[in-house]
């Protein structure tokens, strides 16, 4: 029964996707006499946590009940009071936890508060599922660096565009809708200036039948070549645009970009380009916990070489383009030997219409 109720808590946690960054996704279920009497999830950054919402929604007295929660209850004062103390006050008898919280402010303290007050605690129920659900939070809270997902789409013969540069569309509608779900979940979306100049993308979230959150737009543009009329600078969006530039950028142009509402991050030069490692650290300092990299072949290779990529989502369409001049997902100078190839682990394969998506993590 523990698995059944934890699965329900995980489903509830998913409802917070896109709204809680940089906080974790958490779901909670209260069970008494074999019945669910209360449910809740963390719905919005800065708002009540899952446990508190479950108590608010309880249909009867929770004293003596069992609480299922996907992540260890917090033990510190943040935007809200400690959930561990609230659980004690409510008279909960037993707490089943999916995943211990690696947050240095929690890290077992929540469990200790519960146990010190005579509450039975069981941990590790559906732990791997909880870990995958909160992979963004787990990296960010322990490193203060964003979790980076490299997304790309290619034809069966490995092309992201025809030799003419035409790229609309490589994949089908279902694949593109899933990409907008990825954008909804990520705090930031990053592209290189080459993509902006070639495609002039909006870099926003467009979901079918529901409203999505726009990610912060991050343009890697060492010389600040982005046109002031670019769509990414002229959207009606709550999310801002960040231009990552270097000392090569014209100061007058940078000022004009700031007047358009863009934020400028100046990084050191690395290989005569933006230092991506420095940029990711700067983004983390701004509480940007995740970045969806939707760049072209050059920035994809640079990101892999810089070691900033955690996860890869590759969409493959059943089409053949051909053309020696047609670009591939990862360009740059490339690796000299096969033994140096960047490998993936924990591979998962999904199908979206006629397209296939391969998801994996950098080894």
SS summary, helix count: 11
Spatial order of the strands forming the largest sheet = 10-9-8-7-13-6-14-16-15
Strand content: 15-25%
| Largest sheet geometry | 9 strands, mixed
- Percent of residues in helices comes to 25-40%
Poorly predicted runs: none
Number of strands: 16
Look at the helices and sheets and give the structural class: alpha/beta
Helix and strand pattern: HEEHEHEHEHHEHEHEEHEEEHEHEEE
Task: Explain this structure.
28% of the residues lie in helices and 25% in strands. It is built from eleven helices and 16 strands. Strand 7, helix 8 and strand 8 form a beta-alpha-beta unit. It is elongated. The strands form three sheets. It has a nine-stranded mixed β-sheet with strand order 10-9-8-7-13-6-14-16-15, with helices on both faces. A five-stranded mixed β-sheet has the order 2-1-3-4-5, sandwiched between helices. A two-stranded antiparallel ribbon has the order 11-12. The mean pLDDT is 94. Helix 3 runs parallel beside helix 4. It has 363 residues and is of the alpha/beta class.
């Amino acid at each position: 029964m523990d698995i059944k109720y934890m699965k329900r808590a995980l489903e509830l946690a998913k409802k917070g996707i896109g709204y809680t960054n940089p906080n974790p996704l958490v779901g909670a279920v209260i069970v008494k006499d074999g019945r669910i009497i209360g449910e809740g999830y963390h719905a919005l950054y800065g708002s009540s946590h899952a446990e508190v919402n479950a108590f608010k929604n309880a249909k009867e007295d929770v004293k003596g009940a069992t609480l299922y929660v996907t992540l260890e209850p917090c033990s510190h004062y943040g935007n809200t009071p400690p959930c561990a103390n609230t659980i004690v006050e409510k008279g909960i008898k037993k707490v089943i936890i999916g995943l211990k919280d690696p947050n240095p402010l929690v890290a077992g303290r929540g469990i200790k508060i519960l146990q010190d007050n005579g509450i039975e605690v069981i941990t590790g129920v559906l732990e791997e599922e909880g870990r995958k659900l909160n992979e963004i939070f787990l990296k960010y809270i322990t490193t203060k660096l964003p979790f980076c997902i490299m997304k790309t789409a290619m034809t069966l013969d490995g092309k992201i565009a025809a030799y003419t540069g035409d790229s609309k569309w490589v994949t089908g509608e279902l694949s593109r809708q899933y990409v907008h779900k990825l954008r909804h979940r990520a705090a930031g979306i990053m592209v290189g200036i080459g993509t902006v100049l070639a495609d002039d993308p909006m870099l926003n979230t467009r979901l079918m039948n529901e409203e999505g959150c726009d990610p912060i737009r991050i343009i890697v543009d060492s010389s600040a070549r982005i046109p002031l009329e670019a769509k990414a600078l002229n959207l009606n969006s709550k999310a801002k645009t960040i231009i990552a530039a270097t000392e090569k950028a014209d100061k007058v142009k940078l000022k004009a970009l700031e007047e358009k509402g863009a934020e400028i991050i100046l990084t050191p030069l690395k290989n005569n380009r933006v230092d991506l490692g420095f940029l990711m650290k700067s983004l983390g300092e701004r509480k940007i916990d995740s970045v969806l990299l939707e760049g072209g072949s050059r920035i994809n290779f640079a990101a892999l070489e810089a070691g900033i990529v955690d996860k890869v989502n590759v969409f493959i369409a059943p089409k053949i383009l051909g053309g020696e001049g047609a670009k591939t997902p990862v360009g740059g100078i490339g690796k000299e030997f096969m033994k140096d190839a960047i490998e993936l682990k924990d591979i998962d394969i999904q199908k979206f219409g006629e397209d296939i998506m391969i998801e994996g993590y950098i080894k």
